[in-house]
Amino acid sequence: MASQASGSLHFIAETGDLHLEDAPSKAVSDGYEKLARLMSLSPGTAIFRRFQALNTTNLLRLQAELQDMEHELAEIRSDDSHSKDTIRSSYYNLLIDIGKKLQEYNAALAQAHELGKTAKPNPREVGFLRDWLVRPTMGAMTF
Is the pTM of this model over 0.85? Predict the structure, then answer.
């Protein structure tokens, strides 16, 4: 998805690369339009965080939920072996829930994998964007 070619998106690992906490609060509240305009006019400045730790935490949560569902399914199967009922709604409903959770997990896993393959931005572009963000006028761009 990202490369060093012009017009592509770039991703950074952490906010520390941009030092966004240094930006004045008014600039942050008023700056989205200016920043979007800058990024649309200069695609090399379209730099976004990967949120690696949050994505990993989300994957671990989904994995834990799936593991719990897997254990619950095993319990239902064991209970079914001692039951005369041929079809139990709890088993079927759990399979449906597992299918939905697997779709969510697989999509999140694929997205995290794709994000991991993205190129880091050019340090010069990061420096320019960092400097632009901390200026009170945010680059003095007018619309």
Answer: no
